[in-house]
Amino acid sequence: MYKFKKYVFLALSFMLILSIVLTGCVNIPSDGTNAPTGSQTDATTKAPVKEPPVKLKMFFGDAGIAFPAEIDKSDNPFLNIIEKAANVDLEIIQPPYADFQTQFNLMMASGELPDIIHCWFKADIDKYGSEGAFINWNEYIPKSQQLSQFYSKDMLDMMKTADDAVYALNVLSSMDPNGTYARIDLIDELNNGVMPKTPDDWYQLMKKLKIAYPDSTPMSTQGGVMMADYFFRGFGMGIDGNGIKMQILADSPDRYIWGFEAPKAREAVEFHRKLYAEDLLDKTFVTNTGTEFANAVEQKMTLLSWGGAAAVISRQDRLASIGNTTAVVGFVNNPIASGVNPLDCYQAFSPLGWHCVAISSKSSNIDAAVKVIEAFTTPEVKEGIAWGREGIEYVTNAEGKRILDTEASALANYRVAYCFFNAYWYPDNLNVRAAQLYPKLAGPQATAFRKAYEEGVAIRDAESGMVPMVSDASFVPSNPDLAPKIAEARAASLNIILKAIIGEISMEEYDKQVSDFIGKYKYITEEYTVALQKVIDERN
User: What CATH class has 54-174+351-389+406-420?
Assistant: First the structure.
């Protein structure tokens, strides 16, 4: 029995030794406490091996948003947010804004391209892409869960070239749709807080303003009708600073017309003609520069304008900076004339911004470059760049509200510049800009602006949703042969409109010139209608 127990003991001992050999040595701590086995140690103490960051170069256009001189563009806390997310080391190549196109052309001519190119010339990217300079995103988007979710099929279709490729990914512009904004304090003062709804409502309010403040300029604009198309759209007429637009009416969604052909286009021109004659429209609106327009808005009590939330915040900031402690700016309902289909008062806007990004086909690190683009689209990166660093640019109070250090946050301009890929003024950044503004305002003014801004953004967002973000019209291909003729037509149309508004021609002459215009340029809208119908048929 003793020998049997001895053999059993030896066998168990051998098995134990064998198990130790197979699983790793036992670590015996110096303090004599029990220690985990080697396998346990590996699982709990060994950190996963992290690959070193991939070095990449990025050609970057700042669109005129100047970086502070003391900032190292290739090594700073905000760029590091992107680098950490994508595990890369980015070298930023940033030519001066005024010299960007020249440097871009020289770079393309050399054939020595950085890994990532960001610019605002999609046509150039597409041209060189068709020659093999850039990757076709059609190959990479399906492999990226992040980018596949970020970009819809409709968006990608809008980016395609004639050869069905996507060489440039556009930024997104839909984060801050435009709307009509106005002086809320003047509406409260002169209209008992009743919000005007129609162009005529606004006309009556402008007359009240002119009586109360004879030196005021109730309506102003720049370069003709730029920044003033809200009234034209209110009559269902498509127009911008370059002239008449080609448009689609809600009641006839399968064909294009020139804005002149909208049912109430003539009334829109007559309305502005009346404002001009009664000194309610700035007499110098045709020749106003941006600076002169801003001066009219700030110094002459101009009632309303058009733009995004960034424009509202900037206008409020500017009014406060010149000592106006009562002015309150906010979005209002877009004017809609009686009998006009509201859907015709809102232009369907493209979600694609004019900035774009491409990746060199010769890059030795294409996958890493794609990860950079993915990083730009993530909420974490966008939020981190917009707000900055907790404890430096902002602190969080007991209620969970972020309180900005306004001095530290003054460098928001270059934080914004790194957010090119989603849009310059996405919501987080707008929230930062609003938070920077509040401490500059007088107490009652700050309270009133906060209320007007929040309520106004809700109005703007609701109204922008009245039309699809992406409409059939968005997919009509541009015919390069028609481009110069379209530019010619729009310039001619603007001349007709301006002459009619200032009274240089009668409305009878206006009718004749419009008729001649339609007869001369009808073929353009007809060609676009054919293209539109093809798109509609394909979708059905």
Answer: alpha beta
